[in-house]
Task: structure prediction
Amino acid sequence: MSLRRPRILLVFGIITIGLVGCRKHGGNELPPLKGLKELALIQVADATGVPEIASAAYPLASSDDVVVFFDSRLNQLFRSRLDGTDLLPVGRSGEGPGEYTRVLGLLLENDRIYVLDARRKVICLDAAGGLVWEEKVDSDLTGLIGKRGDVFYFSERILDDSGRFTLGMTEWSRSEGPRILCERPIVIAQGNAVYEGKMIRGGGLFFLAEPAFAVIGDALVVSASDKYEFDLLDFDGQVRQGYAFEAPEPDQVKDAQALDPSEILKNYAIARIMPWRDGFLAVSNYRLNGKPRVDRFSAAGELVSSHYLPFEFDPPSKNIVIRGDHFFVIDREETGFRVYRYDDRNR
Result:
């Protein structure tokens, strides 16, 4: 079951689902946002001026600076240089073998491109877009998190018998099939809808905040939806260690504020976890002039440093993808993407 933000105005009332957590390292405080410095990044390429790129998503960079991405408006995979030159289509959309209808996630490994397709398929393509293999997956997968050997890790939206939505991390391989390793509640806003001047009771659901997942070295990282907390799990889904941090209250959700400033709807905590430099970055929903804080953690979960990003982050309109040392910045008001790397000169 997949829900999208409705196009009618919603007057939200929030339902926050309680978390059942493990014992965590508590009492940790994040450095104040106002005292943070900007993360030192340097722009290395600009593909925003390439008219053939309509709306890039899931960009991935290889070791030789070749980018593979999905153009969601053209419904086409492409590969190019970092600056968008040498643009070539990869495979094609359609219903046949090796074809994709709507891409939900990409991975690039050696000369293989792995595609999560909206038809609940995992497709493996070669560098030219030729079909290597494809498999059907009997789960409501929403994203492609990572890969370890022959095992893939996906996010999966789950609705239980009581009507509670959770987001699960699902392990899948061609030989063993799917296995849910863990689940975390989704924070949901539910309320009335205003349509053509009339109030419709119970007229909408909105996924306000979801947990974030990542594969980091020999561990899985899973965040909470409504707190600045995360767990390190082994590959059987067992919690090794949990970390909880004191953090400020986030800003009110813009949609709710525009309708009724008295509504207390907040977009909590960790928005994205991305592998980076023998550890990971946690991009949060706490912002300084619209720019989010980003905390760097070691693979063991220890806080290394804190900064704020030099650009806005508001998926899906303004998005960030980190792959290796490449920071891809996507703004839906522009075509293409910009590419940055960490500026080691300013450590």
In short: The radius of gyration is 20 Å. The CA atoms of residues 41 and 343 lie 5 Å apart.
